[in-house]
User: What shape does this take?
Amino acid sequence: MDDWLKDSTEVEASWVTVDLAIFTIRSGQLMVLLIERGVEPFLGRPALPGGYVQKNETLREGALRELHEEAGIDGNKLHLEQLGAYGDPRRDPRGRVVTIAYLALGPDLPAPVGGTDARRACWAPVSQLEGEKAALAFDHPTILAEALEQVRSKLEYTAVATAFCGELLTLSELRTVYEVIWGQQLDPSNFRRKVLNTTGFVRPTGDQRFPPTGRPAALYRRGDAWLLSPPLLRGTGHTV
Assistant: This one.
């Protein structure tokens, strides 16, 4: 028998899980949702929320259920999309487990509540997790790093930054999203001009927000465009 044919018959059962990289901005920092594992493997270690997909649910349904069970958050109110599949044979000591990772974004999400196999759940500053390869369970450092780069990249050519804002937003709030996630200061005038010259990015409401001090700010809603043309590129003259 040919070697490739012999190898193709050496198949064993695999399990499917979902994991979620959930980002929000709180107190001026980019935060990711972590849970403390309450069961083996990696008992007591921080991890991204997730778990096994049940036999009668879709991948998305599994992601939404795990998010609700482990953190008490309604994922239907978030921007939710697939990040990718992770299937290294050694990623889970329990056996062959393939996980589908999801990326979720929301505005100033509430404090999470741990449940099921999570001892507790909390928001952790992304800045404290980057580069710490041994900090998270499983291959979650890799998933987190790739999710973070996906967000940073998507800010350039899509309107995903608005997912971090409420229904009504100011240009200053939108600029803060870019500054926090990219880690760089942006020139307010250049940013304003760029956003308003990008067709369909935001649309004015005609209303204003009056802060306790300072000048009132014009309020906008997310526009109809998803892809930004031209894109807002990192480090191309928009920094101070």
